[in-house]
Amino acid sequence: MRSLKFFAVILGLALTVTACGAPPKADLDAAKAAMDAAVAAGAGEYAAPAMKAVEDAQSALDAELKAQEGNWLKSYTKATELAAAVKTAGEKAAADAAAGKETAKNDATAAIGEVKTLLADAQALLAKAPKGKGTAADIEAMKTDLATAGTAITEAETALADGKFLEAKAKAESAKNTAGTVKTAVEAAMAAKKR
């Protein structure tokens, strides 16, 4: 009888210790650090699909932790696995963000170079544009458009220098569209004049 009481006490203590299990703090901290590193690396902007994978993994981890809170007998085995998945996804997102940034930087640099050449060509063509009755207002409007494109190029270069590569590319593309439109219009006017 005495051994049965002893066994009941040991079993009770074992259940109490198991029921009061703690979440895997080191694993959770590592997962959070990896997610924070991905955010700091710009994964949301430069590696959106990878960042979504991190967020999805974090949501699954949060759901598992919440589910364990409601259990009397807690088991954090799955939470540990999910924390490792968040950590792995976070590390991948940070690496993808670094690669995405480099690609965006190269794309922005190339776009700025292209639009500078296009702007110079459009300005040279505009200087040779046929002038005649009713064209002065059109030419002035095109000069204004090219000045706006020049400002966009300056803004693109500033964004590039500030590490805002996607913004730099967008501004360069905007300037490219404007300069291209002017160049096409001047070329059409010159072709019509030759007829």
Descriptive notes:
- The protein is mainly alpha-helical and 195 residues long.
- The protein folds into 2 domains: 23-100, no CATH class; 101-194.
- Helices cover 86% and strands 0% of the residues.
- It is built from 7 helices and no strands.
- The longest helix is centred in the middle third of the chain and has 51 residues, at 77-127.
- The termini are far apart.
- 30% of the residues are buried.
Summarize the structure.
With 195 residues, the chain is mainly α.
Rg estimate, integer Å: 31 Å
Structural domain count? 2
Measured distance between first and last alpha carbons: 117 Å
Largest sheet: none
Residue share in helices?
Answer: over 70%
> What is the number of strand segments?
0
Which class best fits the helix and strand makeup?
Answer: mainly alpha
Number of helices: 7
The run of helices and strands is HHHHHHH
**3D shape:** rod-shaped
Strand content: under 5%
Question: Uncertain spans, ≥5 residues at pLDDT below 50?
Answer: 11-20
Mean pLDDT: 87
Features:
195 residues; mainly alpha; 7 helices
Helix-strand blueprint:
Elements: H1 2-19, H2 25-40, H3 43-46, H4 48-69, H5 77-127, H6 136-161, H7 165-194
Helix pairs in contact: 2-4, 2-5, 4-5, 5-6, 5-7, 6-7
